Amino acid sequence: MDDKKGKQIKATVRELYGQIAAQHTSCCQPPEEASSCCCGDEPNDISNADLLYSKEELADISADIPSLGCGNPIALSELKTGEVVLDLGSGGGFDVFIAGQKVGLTGRVIGVDMTPDMVSKARRGTAAYRQRTGLDNVEFRLGEIEHLPVADASVDVVISNCVLNLSPDKPQVWREVGRVLKPCGRVAISDLTLLKPLPDEIRDMVESLIGCLAGAVLVDQTRAMAEAAGLVEIQLTPKPGYVDSMIDWNDPLYRRVVEHLPEGAKAGDYVTSLSITAAKPALTLTANTRELIAVGASVTAHCQPCLTYHVGKAREMGIEEQDIREAVAVGHQVEKGSMSAMTVFAKSVLDSSTQSNSACCTGQTSPDGKSCCS
Predict the structure, then answer these.
(1) Cβ 165 vs Cβ 215: under 8 Å
(2) At residue 22, does pLDDT exceed 70?
(3) Which CATH number does the domain 287-345 belong to among 3.40.50.1010, 1.20.1290.10, 2.60.40.3080, 3.40.50.300?
(4) pLDDT tens digits, one per residue of 26-51
(5) Which residue in 28, 154, 244, 264 has a CA-CA distance of 20 to 30 Å to 286?
């Protein structure tokens, strides 16, 4: 997709989702026709939410927070206490607030959305979330999922609910997912994908409306993009019949789609709600990398024989001289940082007016069973 068209799609999606935030209209039709979203007759249709979420998950969700998704990535993710979770296209915060209760006091959930009105709506809901749950572990950031405002290797789980299909640059989204995940981090995404290409007439119609099917790609393309981003253990699970059930929700967009399908065909023959799980591989160090780490550690430890040995070993292995020198420089930086920290600590001890009663040097041991005085 060319850059100009991609920007146009983003601008239109941003405008329509801003109206959803303000009016609870649909992500599937223009505002003048709005009556539903990807999931039901109303943005927070509780009868449909009951199909996707447990009663326990819905119990503490405010009724004015719209659910604009097509699945339940929370159930896929199997969240654990203490994990850091990132929600792509977090909207009004529906999945973020549920995830926050799963990860608990020691966890953190970050929602990213490109629509200012949605981010504002989610942030307004944070106070009520804190009051209901007693937790202060969620935050919402304004940004694009193609350029996430999140640090490298800082997230345990990436979730998303019916958002990737709206991105004009899906391979970049998957690369960003791989970037922000920690080694062994995992992905749990619900999205709409194609089982086979839509007829041209329908694709043009859907793109003009920027509906829930806009930009949806084939299931095999989804797998290819996840693999290209370096993810493994990829599992793609279609939900048969989900899209056909949308027709029963009297959604004008889906009625139009059905009207333009070949005779005898159903929407579900072309489109499916897809559950996507994957993982980032564990960090593996090459022999060269391990040797360069040993070079830097030798410098930090002031071990001259060690440094002589590991530099010689690195050269034997054919490691570039520049890489060896950079490893030495890193070792010096670590050493200086350690010395600086100890200097500051020593000054604080000397300036202290009271005697510290720490475990060390009082006849006791520290929690790890060690004492610097023994």
Answers:
(1) yes
(2) no
(3) 1.20.1290.10
(4) 444 444 444 334 444 344 343 455 55
(5) 154
